[in-house]
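<given_protein>
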Amino acid sequence: MNEKLTNYLNEVFAAYEGVRSVSELKADLHSDLQERYRELKAEGKDDETALEMTIDSIGDIEQTVLEVANLSRSLERQVLTNLSASNLAESDFAGVTAHKGKFTSSTLRGSDFTNADLTGSSFKSSDVKDARFDGANLTDCSLTTLDLANASFNESTLVRTNFSKSWLAGATFTGVHLTDVNLTMTALTKTFFENCVFDGVDFTSSDLTGQRFDGQIFIGVKFDRAGLKEASFKGATLKNVSFQGSLLSKKYYRAIKTICFDGATMDKLTFAALKGMDADLSKVTVI
């Protein structure tokens, strides 16, 4: 009958071989079940009844094992993803899961993070030139004060991602829905955006000189005190977008007059604000 108990446990734990905490749980449980089985036999129970009562005594063991395994794996990932101050140029991180990973002050030039889940990770003060984040989940990530020249973020998930004060010359954002992303105090004159939706994005005090946002969507976006000279919003959609400059400088208001809004669609409040700054809205559709 001990063999039947062993076989039962082997089946339950089969999917979690190699997880240390689960292996320890299995060993402890095996010992406890054998003791419980012997007690029931001593009380006069037959073999089948004693086995059934022994197994019933542990409840929903499958759920317990799953929870222990998930916790153990989560803790292991946290230990393994502290890669701060490391030389990791051209590393392969494609498809990895590294929640709250630490990549600060590291060399990550040319590394591949394609389709990785990097939720909550920090890349502060690192060299991330030419890195690929295509399809990666960068929710709640900090990418501040970084060199991200020529990095790619095509079809990545950007939610509350912080890029402030980073260098993004040559970086590409294609097919991305940016939600509550922070792009303040950042040079974006040579950054490439295509087929993007900007939802709650903050461009305050960033340099967007000559930037082309043609055909893209802006909802609740801030362009306050941003450099917008010769920027283009041809065919773009703007809803509740903020354009506010410094009262002490005329430079911002002069730049607004150079922006091309031909074919753009915007709500009445955005239209009124831009009209008050003498923007050319002659070819704009108001909704």
In short: Confidence is low (pLDDT under 50) at residues 71-79. The beta strands are 158-159, 172-174, 177-179, 192-194, 197-199, 217-219, 237-239, 265-266, 285-286. DSSP finds six helices and nine strands in the chain.
